[in-house]
Amino acid sequence: MATYDLVVIGTGPGGYVCAVRASQLGMKVAVVEKNATLGGTCLNVGCMPSKALLHASEMFEEAGHSFAKMGVKVSAPTLDLPSMMNFKQQGIDGNVKGVEFLMKKNKVDVLKGTGKILGSGKVEVSADGKSQVIETKNIVIATGSDIARLKGIEIDEKRIVSSTGALALDKVPGKLLIVGAGVIGLELGSVWKRLGAEVVVVEFLDRILPGMDGEIAKQFQRILEKQGFAFKLGAKVTGIDTSGKTLKATVEPAAGGTAETLEADVVLVAIGRVPYTDGLGLKEAGVALDPRGRVQIDPHFATSLKGVYAIGDVVAGPMLAHKAEDEGVAVAEIIAGQAGHVNYDVIPGVVYTTPEVSSVGKTEEELKQAGVAYTVGKFPFTANGRSKVNQTTDGFVKILADAKTDRVLGVHIIGIEAGEMIHEACVLMEFGGSAEDLARTCHAHPTRSEAVKEAALAVGKRAIHM
């Protein structure tokens, strides 16, 4: 029977990062993975392949619509979808091999099979009808999440697809109906819209991007509508007729009322994700779940069963790969007797559309609800020199600071490369910095990041270029 200091179940960003950090700290580590490749949803059918298609489809869009005005004359681009999918697969393969290399480099044993917790210190790994029991001092559950499903609607990954199927369509749908106006739906909608699909998004709430700053969401919706997206907000899909050549979706107002029928070639169900705990044996082992099916943990990631911890999408908090990575590092350090910690107030979020949307910290709605007095500084990219000369002026930067102390509480950006720009705000907030600190930090000219400095100046009503 093999014996380890730590066994991690799942090799997504949380799991493999946890394993690497534990190995660095001198532990004997194994990971358990049920799929053929390492890397979890993120590397195989999530974050990474979607970014490849977002990049490739944006290049297609640029070549077709933006090159000419810059004096670059090319013939109208034609789509070779199989080659684009091959481009995506090359990226997946490269990242997966990278994780395999990290496991070897850090002497982490990879156990292929399904992991089941038999109790404190025991994990059963089953594959191909055979099973073995592994002894370990500690166990980390890092099994991630699965797609959320709509009641009565069967996902076949051909015509009615989840994000997994939407990343692997063999032709561009004439009409794409997206259920859910969150990050996943808008990103994948952007891919297929650029490649020629007509896109309609149905959202139960009366706004897109639930949880993000309301003003940002409103402006972003206007930008997407200019790009050709159609939105039906405050509406729900109650059924899909699959009998005909085209799908017929029944859409009703969320508050009740007259239904309408929308036709589509493909329906993407993107209503969120749910914790994945199937087959882990948690109930039998005595690992408590919360009412939403997430593994319950204390502030040190410990579950109700001694020596068993949990991180990532399977526990409470935003379902983000980087949140899982930070938790993976923290729990490894805690197991090693160190002071592992995650600052949940400074976890950025990014929507990788064009333009991008990024945010960190509190929204205006959250500050109002908490009764916190705050000041706002905003600066549009229409007044940013670099954005003007590149003719990429959609969006703005918004900084929220404490009215008394000037400490930055939240930063929200719509714009080209917003996902890269957010990190100076993250570093500032990690050190408890003020809008004044940011405003007095020299920024290179000409850069888009100058808009962040100007927004910080605007908090004190002293923006220079506006």
Shape: globular
The whole-angstrom Rg is: 24 Å
Residue-averaged pLDDT, rounded?
A: 98
Helix content: 25-40%
What structural class do helix, strand and pairing data support?
Answer: alpha/beta
Could you tell me the number of beta strands?
22
List the uncertain runs.
Answer: none
Number of domains: 3
Q: Biggest β-sheet, characterized? A: 7 strands, mixed
Distance between the termini: 69 Å
Strand content: 25-35%
Quaternary organisation of the protein chains: single chain
CATH topology of the largest domain: FAD/NAD(P)-binding domain
CATH class of the largest domain: Alpha Beta
What is the H level of CATH, i.e. the homologous superfamily of the largest domain? FAD/NAD(P)-binding domain
Count of separate DSSP helical elements: 14
Structural overview:
The chain has 466 residues and is of the alpha/beta class. The protein folds into 3 domains: 3-145 and 274-335, FAD/NAD(P)-binding domain (3-Layer(bba) Sandwich), CATH 3.50.50.60; 160-271, FAD/NAD(P)-binding domain; 349-459, Enolase-like, domain 1 (2-Layer Sandwich), CATH 3.30.390.30. The chain contains 14 helices and 22 strands. A hairpin with a 5-residue loop joins strand 12 (235-241) and strand 13. The longest helix is centred in the first third of the chain and has 25 residues, at 81-105. The chain is globular, with a radius of gyration of 24 Å. The mean pLDDT is 98.
Concise structural overview:
The protein is α/β, with parallel strands linked by helices and 466 residues long. It has helices spanning 13-24, 40-45, 47-65, 81-105, 163-166, 183-194, 214-227, 282-285, 321-335, 364-370, 385-390, 418-430, 435-439, 450-459, and strands at residues 3-9, 29-33, 109-112, 114-119, 122-127, 130-141, 145-147, 160-161, 175-179, 198-203, 230-233, 235-241, 247-253, 260-264, 266-269, 273-275, 308-310, 349-351, 356-361, 374-380, 396-402, 408-415.
